UniProtKB/TrEMBL annotation:
SUPFAM superfamilies registered for this protein in UniProt: ABC transporter involved in vitamin B12 uptake, BtuC
Similarity remark: Belongs to the ABC-3 integral membrane protein family.
Gene Ontology cellular-component terms listed: ATP-binding cassette (ABC) transporter complex
Protein name, UniProt field: Metal ABC transporter permease
Length: 288
């Protein structure tokens, strides 16, 4: 017991770990909450796509000014999200195809620009894999602001988001502006990805948008409970992943995703056991 307490308390003496733990926990919670709407819409791929698209903005903005790379990446990500909505609505193209075209083109452009001109701001590796210890105070404030905006969106837009997620046609008939709701969600999602990019990186941010919501969905049939559980699972994945990252000297983003995957595996086994127990309780029906 003393060894466990020492393992928990000892890293907290370092300021960098305190900051990293806070950022990792908040990032996991934020991605878990937003990811519920994405996964229930069958758009899990968009997290992967937009993270790659924002990488293109990260590279392009550095050609103008490395100081404002976050602004450039953010604008680029929002424009990519709006382009996906526009292409999907105006043309006979599925959302997955639109996401694939827009975001992979942005990612390819980002790699081309960084290869040709180099990076004057954060390194190529930091953008791809995250660098939680290198996150600035300004980026932490941005994470706070995006978290507050996301909670406000879920709280005040709960009804419209719920309708638009499960049945857009009924939502439109009920007076909900599905287009405005979709745009709001895509903008907030882009900001979520941008603000957490330094924590888990381009290559892993999509995993944290998917794993906590899917895990939560296996544990409950309630939409409200799914929102809460996904947020908690994301936060715990971030916190535990940060501790294990410190102990094992493994990149924090990688460990956070691995902890999420363990939670998913446990939920999968638990859900299977629950189904078997329910089936065993159903009385057999005699067939004459």
């Amino acid at each position: 017991m003393n060894a466990f307490l020492d393992a928990v308390v000892h890293p907290l003496q370092y300021a960098f770990f305190q900051k990293g733990l806070l950022v990792a926990t908040l990032s996991g919670a934020l991605l878990g909450l937003t990811g519920v709407y994405i996964t229930l819409r069958g758009m899990s791929y968009i997290g992967h796509g937009l993270s790659h698209s924002i990488f293109g903005g990260f590279a392009a903005s550095q050609l103008i000014s490395a100081e404002f790379f976050l602004w450039g990446a953010g604008v680029w990500g929002v424009m990519s999200a709006l382009a996906i909505i526009t292409v999907t609505r105006r043309h006979r193209i599925g959302a997955d195809a639109a996401i694939g075209v827009v975001t992979t083109a942005s990612f390819a452009l980002g790699i081309a620009l960084l290869t040709r001109f180099g990076a004057t701001g954060p390194s190529f590796e930091s953008a791809l894999f995250g660098s939680i210890l290198g996150i600035s105070q300004g980026q932490i404030f941005m994470l706070y602001a995006v978290a507050a905006l996301t909670v406000a969106m879920v709280f005040f837009g709960y009804r419209s988001l719920l309708f638009a997620t499960f049945d857009p046609d009924v939502a439109a008939v009920s007076g909900v502006s599905v287009l405005a709701t979709d745009i709001m969600l895509m903008v907030v999602l882009s900001l979520n990805i941008l603000s957490t990019l330094n924590v888990v990186g381009v290559t892993l941010v999509a995993a944290m948008l998917v794993i906590p919501p899917v895990t939560a969905r296996m544990l409950t049939d309630s939409f409200a409970a799914t929102l809460v559980l996904a947020t908690v699972i994301g936060a715990l994945s971030g916190a535990i992943g940060m501790y294990l990252s410190y102990a094992a000297e493994v990149p924090s983003g990688t460990m956070i995703v691995l902890i999420g995957a363990v939670a998913f595996t446990v939920a999968l086994a638990t859900a299977g056991r629950r189904r078997r127990l329910r089936a065993a309780k159903v009385p057999a029906v005699a067939v004459s």
